[in-house]
Design a protein that fits this description.
globular, metal ion binding, 4 strands, Glutaredoxin
Length: 106
């Protein structure tokens, strides 16, 4: 399976996927940590985190897949939402909680 197929399988296989540095329990950068905190505060119980530090192929190819250059990258229902800044903006507006609750209602 190609790395692009593996990325696609991750994105399509889980309602909420965060490609991040580290894990949800042990984030390895501040941006990833803040994104995880926002998702948890928004009620995300089914967060699937992919540690890009453990998979250099995913780390190298995800920006090509998503057309987004930085990490973390949040996908909800297969759609790229964005990075840390966008995740925090959506959290502050209440929009992230709505998006998360929709994934958990399915």
């Amino acid at each position: 399976m190609s790395v692009m197929d593996r990325i696609k399988a991750e994105v399509e296989g889980h309602p909420i996927v965060l490609f991040m540095k580290g894990t949800a329990q042990f984030p390895m950068c501040g941006f990833s940590s803040r994104a995880v905190q926002a998702l948890k505060a928004a009620g995300a119980t089914q967060l699937h985190a992919v540690n890009v530090l453990e998979d250099p192929e995913v780390r190298a190819n995800l920006p090509r897949y998503s057309n987004w250059p930085t990490f973390p990258q949040l996908f909800i229902n297969g759609e790229l939402i964005g990075g840390c800044d966008i995740t925090l903006e959506l959290f502050e507006s209440g929009e992230l909680a709505r998006m998360v609750s929709e994934t958990q209602a399915q």
